[in-house]
Amino acid sequence: MISVEEALARVLSYVSVLEPETKPILDSLGQVLAEDVYAQFSIPPLDNSAMDGYAVNAEDTKGASDSTPIRLRVIDEVAAGYMSKKSVTPGTAIRIMTGAPIPAGADAVVQFEHTSEASRMGYGQKARLSEVEVYRPVTPGQNIRQAGEDVRQGEMILKKGSTIRPAEIGVLASLGHSVVRVIRRPKVAILATGDELVQVGEHLPIGKIYNSNTYSVASQVLRYGAIPVILGIARDREEDLISKIRQALECDMLITTAGVSVGDYDLTKKVLATEGEINFWQVRMKPGKPLAFGRIGKLPHLGLPGNPVSSMVSFEQFGRPAILKMMGKTEFRKPEVTAVLHGGADNRDGRRCYYRAVVRKINGTWHADLTGPQGSGILTSMALANGLVIVPEDVAELKDGETVRVQMLDWTEDMENA
Fold it and tell me: Which has the closest alpha carbon to 224: 337, 315, 358, 162?
């Protein structure tokens, strides 16, 4: 048996960053930029108004107050998307909307609230004013967004290797990009094995179980940004398993569930050895000890255990990092917190144990409550959990009230701010 760290290192050594592809920007969410993005123009391209108000020469507003307003002649009106053909000269102003380019001769904007416009708006008057009174002085540059304030022409705006979030998509759109070069998403083939399995939706005979592993693993693959390719169920016959595995050769990774233990019908290891190579097949962890990893041709293969909790926990430790690396990401660890354990957790055979737990932050301290029975076949223990309490290999028991390390399965904003 090898350690979790060694197993992960071997898995990651077998996978590489995939090649780039060109995607519509909205479809690239969560992918990694394959090239630097430079600005072809400045944003905003021109000085523009940050307020609805009046574009003025700041010098004209000196000394303005409620009792001694400055009266200016209104010579034009300009909305966002348009430009005034007139220039502000001493004693004049141009009515301007937020986002409209600053007219020539103006160096500040007086917001409506500090002019006689406020009372005009209160009475619902819409006719254009020929004059406006200013009640507050402004300084040069006040209420003006400078050209290039956000983006300057020629600058690198987004760096290769960055993950695309909604903000990056907005930036790309603001730069006029409808498509972007990103590392493509891996296609991950998913194959369940075993005569006991029945497809979801079909009649369930006595002694059979529904194929839940395919759906839990496929959803994990989706969650971390890859594309699941479901191959169905391979029965406990070598020819059937080999046929199904060969369907996966056009994918970037194959994940099988079950068939990696030591039973008479656990064929996955045998077929993997025949069709490819096995790198390892046991890991010092619980749940998830029987876990095979190797290669079929150039196709990495991760053989997860058949028990549903073992399958999901093993995927988090090995499948997830492999997918993230193929996508061009460099941070593979799940968030971890230090929490107070409620209830005991033992470790009788020197493996690293992952106990399912509900983790909450109370008065600034994290607390972890186990979800109940921790059998590797109790899938509901995963549905109840948002974290995995880690019991190290060299710790025989964690007692109630001890401080523990917890790997978070879910990390939400409300947990961050609790």
Answer: 315
93's CB contacts (< 8 A; 6+ apart) are: 54, 55, 56, 60, 72, 73, 74, 75, 110, 132, 134
Q: Are residues 107 and 173 in the same domain?
A: no
Asked if 304 and 215 sit in the same domain, the reply is yes
Mean pLDDT of 263-268: 56
Residues 128 and 207 in one domain: no
Same domain membership, residue 310 and residue 206: yes
Q: State residue 20's pLDDT score.
A: 98
Indicate if 208 and 245 belong to the same structural domain: yes
**Burial zone of 356 (CB within 10 Å; 0-12 exposed, 13-18 middle, 19+ buried):** buried
Q: What's the one-letter identity of residue 78?
A: V
Among the residues of 91-223, which ranges form H helices? 117-122, 166-174, 212-223
pLDDT exceeds 80 at position 126: no
State the residue range of the domain holding 385.
Answer: 336-416
Instruction: Identify whether 196 is part of a domain.
Output: yes
* 102: CATH: 2.170.190.11
Do the Cβ atoms of 168 and 182 come closer than 8 Å?
no
pLDDT for 152-211, tens place per residue?
Answer: 999 999 999 999 999 999 999 999 999 999 999 999 999 999 889 999 999 999 999 999
Identify whether residues 58 and 35 lie together within a single domain.
no
| Beta bridge mates, 283 | 2
20 cis-preceded (ω within 30 degrees of 0): no
pTM attached to this predicted model: 0.86
Residue 331 backbone phi and psi in degrees, to 5: -105, 115
| Cα separation, 316 vs 360, whole angstroms | 21
37-74 per-position pLDDT tens digit: 999 999 999 999 999 999 999 999 999 999 999 999 99
Residue 225 near residue 327 (C-beta atoms within 8 A):
yes
Phi, psi of 300 (to 5 degrees): -65, 140
SS3 assignment, position 290: strand
Q: What percent of the chain has pLDDT over 90?
A: 81
